[in-house]
Amino acid sequence: MAVFDLESVLSRMTLAEKASFVTGVTVQDTAGVPRLGVPALVLCDGPHGVRRLADGADPRDLYNAAPATAFPTASATACSWDPELLQEIGAALAAESRAVGVDILLGPGVNIKRSPLCGRNFEYFSEDPVLAGELASGWVRGLQRGGVGASVKHFAANNQETSRMQVSAEVDERTLREIYLPAFERVVKQARPATVMASYNRINGIWAAQHEWLLTQVLRDEWGFDGFVVSDWGAVTDSVASVRAGLDLEMPGTAGRSAAVLTEAVGAGVLDEAALDRAVARILEVTARLLSAGDTLGPPRADHALGHALARRVAAESAVLLTNGDRFLPLDPAGQGTLAVIGEFARTPRFQGGGSSHVKPTRLEAALDEIRAAVGGQREVRFAPGFRLDGAADQELLEEAATAAGAAADVVVFLGLPDSEESEGFDRASIDLPAVQLDVLHAVAAANPRVAVVLSNGGVVATRPVERHALAVLEMWLGGQAAGGAAADLLFGTAEPAGRLAETIPLALTDNPSYISFPGTVERVSYGERHYVGYRWYDKTAREVAHPFGHGLSYTTFGYSGLRVSVPDPARPEAVVTFTVSNTGQRPGAEVAQVYVTDVEASADRPERELKAFRKVRLAPGESRTVELTLTMRDFAFWDERRHGWTVEPGAFHIAVGASSRDLRLTATVEFNVPLTALPLTLESTVTEWLGRPAGRDALAAAGNEAARLLGVDGEIMTLIGGIPIKRMLTLAQPGTTDEGLEQLVERANA
Ligand code: GLC
Fold first, then answer.
1. Which residues, other chains included, contact 747 with Cβ-Cβ below 8 Å and sequence gap of 6+?
2. Which residues contact 457 (CB under 8 A, 6 or more apart)?
3. Measured CA distances, 268 to 20, 23, 273, 384, 416 (Å)
4. Cα separation of 454 and 351, whole Å?
5. Which residue from 592, 595, 633, 630 is spatially nearest to 612, judged by alpha carbons?
6. Rounded Cα gap, residues 478 and 71, in angstroms
7. Within a 10 A sphere around the Cβ of 55, how many other Cβ atoms?
């Protein structure tokens, strides 16, 4: 379709057309400007598959969508630690989106997993912003190179479902900058998303959809975002304030009501038409971008068979082998004796989450069928459902399962969270698996200890109660429509478990730093744990966990050697990290080498270590690969609220390379002597700060009287008065102190 002339269209649009253009029409369509040849846009969910409602379909019928490939959800794909794989998923989603006329696919969801209880954690990547940002960037690159716009969401600090449309996330700026914004920042800077979706909640009392600091100052002025900002559906509470703040498209349509409000506001001089033009221009620009991409790509081609095969590979790449006692896995499909398959999830897969991301799959593989196909009659496979998905106890099912296990040589038990336990729209109250499932596992393991457990869950579950009764535990998350096949591939070793945890599995919910503040009240939730989220907290408090961030076993083993860290210029915080990873086992496998940075000494409190780079390498038995990763200034910096910017302080940093945040195999130390401009001394700077700087001491000496006498203070007195701001110290010690005297003191100190 021919691309239109943006300036000309904007200049010819009427006020009414502009107001309609920025306020949606239906649940998935915008208005476009038909009179001027500007097509409407179709915006549909993602992010794990295309949920395309038929035109005119009832928007409340969420699941009445065209069939599409249901890929593993983000909490699974995050464990692949493979941005290139996410890019492949994005490309496949683009083909399927274009085939059903979708212009913008609403994803990826990059909100940080502050609490394991968040009902939408299945839809998000990680507790770490570097991992989330890198993976989401891959997904966006794949999607947009395929001609479909992304909508990175939900911007920002939308980390719970409870009262998500009322709650204010009370977060200090350093925590926002270091934890809750960086994943968005990485995607914006690395993948140039067509849109960003403003979230439902408030941040420090201001609605995200009308948060000028967030939508304009940070997103555009600092990060250079050049697409348009779309509201979450129904997130706009004040259309005029939203346009002013930098929101460009309000969704869904409000039957013209919002358009009328905007038209009236411009007519009454309450809203500057230039602000409306700005929103229109941004949507026009993205529309033109998508049109030209479509012209270049030609007619859409979606191949659901390819999508399904990719979904199966992704599910295997994302599965995390948590434990594997006695190297119980992989099983032999032709092994001696019966293989018992226990658990309703083997027959009725739990493969995706509830809510807007829900997809009608093109097909659905049950693990039981796929296990039977893989065994191919070489050994008997016996199934017992074991429990009911509604969680009701059923003694008969339990006993049947125990009997089947007792008569078998090997047992695989499929456990997980039923749909009712987690979804968009509400949060969990516990991270425990349903009691009925654990009861079945106990009975099965008592009958036969040769047990492997396969888990299907979106949010993290407490795995220790499972591990006590199983030799092996394979966490497959919500593995998409082909998870059943992937489970068979993994259980029999056709595929290697290649996942690593993107979120810590705590021993207990009470160990999680947000436990005492989540989900807050209807009005507000306080992020009191600050930047100590996930492993940052567990490491800082030296707390034992069930499995650390980055953990995952393989069917082979890996060695690390030859760490070298080169610093081209110690005055510039940059380093090149080189090391070698070797497959020291007998089978092929993939390893995710992780690089963590520690600031040995800082003026601000920093985490023990933070993930700053990673690389997934696939190695044949005996093969080695040298990896080189670059660390830049931001990998060493913290957000300094006094300097209001990213700061690297001079001194030593540890660089650790390993297989998880708690399995660090190689370490090195680097020193930077980054020149750091001293903060100016002010009247609020303390006695200690003034005496700690030669310029401050000189200024006090020159001022004479009580100011000069401070130079002689030390020892116990100093501990008493060191923290007093200088102005209050001097006015207390010397009542005659004048404002001009104080101003002269400051000027002299900072001269
Ligand atoms: C939902 C979700 C958002 C989704 C949108 C459209 O409420 O918060 O992720 O894309 O509405 O369905």
1. none
2. 350, 416, 417, 422, 433, 475, 477, 478
3. 18, 19, 11, 70, 57
4. 13
5. 595
6. 9
7. 10
CB neighbourhood size of 430 (10 A): 12
Q: Which two tokens stand for residue 580?
A: 């070698």
Tell me the C-alpha distance between 478 and 471, whole Å.
Answer: 22
Distance, CA 250 to ligand 1 centroid (Å)? 12
Query: pLDDT above 70 covers what percent of the chain?
Result: 100
Question: For ligand 1, which residues put their CB under 6 angstroms from it?
Answer: 45, 106, 153-154, 232-233, 356
Q: How confident is the model over 226-267, as pLDDT tens digits? A: 999 999 999 999 999 999 999 999 999 999 999 999 999 999
The mean of the pLDDT values for the chain is 96
The residue from 29, 103, 128, 232 that is catalytic is: 232
Hey, what are 156's tokens?
């920002």
CA–CA separation, 14 and 651 (whole Å): 60
Closest CA to 411 of 451, 470, 380: 451
Q: Which atom of ligand 1 is nearest to the CA of 251?
A: 6
Strand partners, 452: 412, 472
The mean pLDDT value for 124-140 works out to: 98
Integer Cα distance of 22 and 199 in angstroms: 17
563-618 pLDDT, tens digit per residue, is: 999 999 999 999 999 999 999 999 999 999 999 999 999 999 999 999 999 999 99
Task: State pLDDT tens for residues 662-705.
Answer: 999 999 999 999 988 888 999 999 999 999 999 999 999 999 88
Question: pLDDT for 70-121, tens place per residue?
Answer: 999 999 999 999 999 999 999 999 999 999 999 999 999 999 999 999 999 9
The Cα–Cα gap between 673 and 252 comes to 53
Question: Going by CA atoms, what residue is nearest to atom 11 of ligand 1?
Answer: 233
Beta bridge partners of 169: 203, 525
Range from 53-57, 67-71, 188-192 carrying the lowest mean pLDDT? 53-57
Q: Which of 104, 106, 154 to mutate to test the pocket of ligand 1 (most atoms within 8 A of CB)?
A: 106
> How far apart are alpha carbons 583 and 559 in whole angstroms?
6
Place of tokens 């609020």: 684
Is residue 1 pLDDT above 70, yes or no? no
pLDDT digits (tens, 9 = 90+) for 467-492: 999 999 999 999 999 999 999 999 99
The C-alpha atoms of residue 291 and residue 3 are separated, in whole angstroms, by 6
Separation of alpha carbons 141 and 138, rounded Å: 5
Contact indicator for 549, 540 with CB cutoff of 8 Å = no
Whole-number Å distance between alpha carbons of 733 and 716: 17
Residue 58's CB: how many other CB atoms inside 10 A?
A: 10
Which atom, in ligand 1's list, is nearest to the CA of 51? Answer: 12
The DSSP code sequence of 81-116 is --HHHHHHHHHHHHHHHHHTT-SEEE--B----S-T
Which pTM was predicted?
Answer: 0.96
The residue length of the chain stands at 751
Question: Closest ligand 1 atom, CA of 46?
Answer: 10
Distance 153 CA to ligand 1 centre (A): 9
According to the model, what pLDDT value does residue 3 have?
79
The CA distance from 708 to 702, in Å, is: 7
DSSP string, 254-277: -TTHHHHHHHHHHHTTSS-HHHHH
- In angstroms, how far is CA 726 from the centroid of its own chain? 44
Q: Quote the CA–CA distance of 67 and 604 in Å, as a whole number.
A: 52
- By DSSP bridging, strand 206-207 and strand 381-384 are unpaired
Contact (Cβ atoms closer than 8 angstroms) between residue 418 and residue 391: yes
232 is catalytic: yes
- How many angstroms separate the alpha carbon of residue 485 from the centre of ligand 1? 30
Report how far ligand 1's centroid is from the alpha carbon of 232 (Å): 6
What is the CA 684 to chain-centroid distance, rounded? 39
Give yes or no for residue 2 having a pLDDT over 70. no
